[in-house]
Amino acid sequence: MHITTFSKVQMNPLCPKQEEIRIEDIAHAQSLMTRANGHFPEFYSVGQHSIACAREAIARNYSSRVVLACLLHDGSEAYLSDITRPVKGELSEYRRIEKNMQDAIYVRFLGQIPSDEEMSQITDIDNACLYYEFDHYMGEKLMEQAPLLVTDPAFETLPFAQVEQEFLDLFATLTV
Questions:
Q1: CB distance 19 to 9 below 8 Å
Q2: 83 Cβ neighbours under 8 A, 6+ residues apart
Q3: Which candidate, 35, 29, 24, 53, places its Cα nearest to that of 128?
Q4: Ramachandran area for residue 44 (φ above 0: left; ψ -120 to 50: alpha; else beta)
Q5: How far apart are CA 146 and CA 142, in angstroms?
Q6: Element holding 4 (H helix, E strand)
Q7: Cα separation, 164 vs 56, whole angstroms
Q8: What are phi and psi for residue 45, nearest 5 degrees?
Q9: pLDDT reported for residue 1
Q10: Which residues contact 112 (CB under 8 A, 6 or more apart)?
Q11: Which of 13, 25, 125, 148 meets the CB 3.0–4.6 Å disulfide criterion with 79?
């Protein structure tokens, strides 16, 4: 059982191998995947969200590991897709598979899974970006108090190829 990725790798996402995980596949897939399961009034990609998270980590002067982890934090979606939070919360086996895939991505590109402290920083940024995405696109405030966001992400539809290249360029800068 396998999927065929953009780079023509045939991989079993239930049992990922390090050599099968490619940044080109993650960047490409995320540039084409929409946030909010397609319910925003215009297209805003997972790739744009991931780039915004990494830029927020840079602006907060977080470690280079956390910045890279923020760029990669939704990498599993390139291989598994995504499920909305209310549904995902009911699918323990999916969450286990997703964690296994995401951990494999972190090990591949960071050398190890982020620490609890690093994961807390990553989650904080992810949730802050999510809050402002929903505020902008849906006029919905997901929390009573707006979280800290140091950057000012551009919420606009961008060409897929531009997002993919921006993701790859940022990755290259972070891994030099």
A1: no
A2: 91, 94
A3: 53
A4: beta
A5: 8
A6: strand 3-4
A7: 18
A8: -85, 160
A9: 87
A10: 106
A11: 13
Residues 55-77: tens digit of each pLDDT = 999 999 999 999 999 999 999 99
Residue 36, token pair as written in the block = 């909010």
Residue 152, both tokens: 């000012």
Separation between Cα atoms, residue 14 and residue 2, nearest integer Å = 9
Under 8 Å CB-to-CB from 174, ≥6 apart: which residues? 54, 64, 67, 68, 71
Percent above pLDDT 90 for the chain: 97
Tokens standing for residue 140: 């919905």
Return the CATH class of domain 22-174: mainly alpha
In sequence order, what are the beta bridge partners of 10? 4
Q: CA-to-CA distance for 142 and 3, rounded, in angstroms?
A: 34
